Amino acid sequence: NTASAAEVFAAALQQNNAAVLVGANTDHTFGKGVIQTVAPLGDPPGNDGAVAVTVATYSTPNGDNINGQGLAVDLISTSCTLADSAKSCLARTSPYKTDK
Hints:
Layout: H1 5-15, E1 22-24, E2 34-40, E3 50-57, E4 75-77, H2 86-92
Parallel strand pairs: 1-4
Antiparallel strand pairs: 2-3
């Protein structure tokens, strides 16, 4: 799974026609497009839990917000796992295009 800055990097490659995104059994990437900080609550800190505060968001070079939706992949592979190299995965992937 890709998330956060890795998704922005993948989007930059995809949107500039420099790479093909292959989804391992999925048609979208993870979709984490926010940066959060956790603030402990209570005295001592953390005694009453914590609150996560969003301090920034990621967007693609084209300005798309990926949070909660991810990137649509170009190809879906049902024979690849996260442990496979890109080269071996592409060799086993059919030329099926997603409906982006």
